[in-house]
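Morning!

This is the sequence you dropped in the shared folder:
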Amino acid sequence: MPGPSIATAKKNDKPLVTVNCTTITDSLLESELFGHRKGAFTGADAHKIGLFEAADGGTIFLDEIGDITPKLQAELLRVLDSGEVRPVGGTTAKKVDVRLIAATNKNLEDGIKQGWFREDLYYRLNVFTITTPPLRSRVESIPLLAQHFLEKAGAKLNKKIVSIEMRAIKAMSHYPWSGNIREMQNVIERAAVLTLDDTIRLEHLPHSFSEFYPAEGNRDKSAIQTSFQAARERHVGIVEKELIQQYLAEANGHISQAAQRADIPRRTFYRLMEKYGLKGREIKARIKASGLKPSESATP
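The structure's back. Tokens below.
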């Protein structure tokens, strides 16, 4: 939701300051946005310039603005109306020339009706609105977004991953994506940790994605008429391999510890690793390269 500009000067080549309103408490967010004076509160050991002042002449982007409290909404409205910011604990205000862009995944009109969002602030912000449809409504973007997050994950994990197989793309195209872009980013990063080569496959995605892999009309009749037993074994294999990889990741690649976590004999665990071509050393090296702690590696 692009909001108002406090002044009209060109700002495309000026500073861009961003803040996620959900990651900071209300009292700290006020200090972040407007600054504070020394001694204004416990821990305020020095003067601090707020983000509005830091963005003077440019743009400030407030992500998830629907999460700020009524108190902060009132203060934000005052800044937009007056074009002035007053630091927490300060007595004087300073003029700022800032363009404000706000985004939210909440319905602010519902918020007005329910009383958790100010109507006057809504109309002050709602100069020009851009509505972005959920990921499930723009499936044509999924291949490009998946490749983008694949490249980011590869760089983060220091792994060369070049492609995502078509089965995985088709499953992602039918998946509902209740968590939208952030969910896709996490799914791709998880798959990048699990893959042992340069390709992400359907079995590297969470097990629920296999349910969204569509049957293709041009498959051989023999494939369509696969027996229940064969289909069951295939899906069990996917889950089994995924679990073995998870236990190895949680145990930092130590096979004995992984077998204990799985509560199966070490020899059985070895046989399952051989069955799926898994090696504890490779998973341990992958975790080390990713910079994740063993306890984090199971849920990238």
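Headline: DSSP finds 13 helices and ten strands in the chain.

More detail when I'm at my desk.
O.
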